[in-house]
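Pipeline run #58 for the internal structure catalog. This entry was flagged by the ingest filter as a single-chain record with no existing model, so it goes straight to prediction. Upstream metadata was stripped on purpose; only the residue string is passed forward. Reviewer on rotation: M.T. Logging verbosity set to normal.
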Amino acid sequence: MDPIYRIAMVVRSPRDRTRLRDILLNLGHEIVLNATSLEELRGHCATASPQLIVTDIGKCGLDCLEVVEAILEEQRVPFIVVACADGDNIDQAKTHGALAFLTKPVRQSDLSAAISIAMRQFEELQSARLEVVDVRRALEERKYVERAKGIIMNSRQLDEPSAFKWLQQFASSHRQTLVDVAKSIVLTEQALNLPARVSSHKRRI
């Protein structure tokens, strides 16, 4: 059984809106917002919390896509574009982040396939973003550990392996993570050195 998604529609034409709604309902999806304008999407998208947006760009073209892209910058919701078959429309849709493009008239089989592709691509993009965040966090945490290790080496006259072992033992005995201990040591060192830095700056002035 195919997954069921919460979908927001943005379609101006009553006939196209009815057709798209019927297709989505036939596929079993939940329509949480049936908007007739981008202003309506902007006003209700956050509260509707859709997992996917399907928008018919009609005659507004690039302007419409720019607005949709701006609305979704913070919410990170994938969207599918429906439009007349036109090379410019397709290129613009890709440029502004659409994960699928359908030409009118929309067929149920095509929309079903587009939804599956869009959601799979979105999940892959989200996973990639999380990996980047994890790598950045790991690098930042490593910097704290390295700086704390240097502080311990200087203050306790220890070599690098011994300083690292000291950090591990301290963290274990105080039931803290190594990173939390390292951050505490670095921030404490910065606070202790701040008066000296301010005094030095005043003398230079």
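catalog note: The two ends are 73 Å apart (CA to CA).
catalog note: Residues 196-205 have pLDDT under 50 and may be disordered.
status: ready for reviewer M.T.
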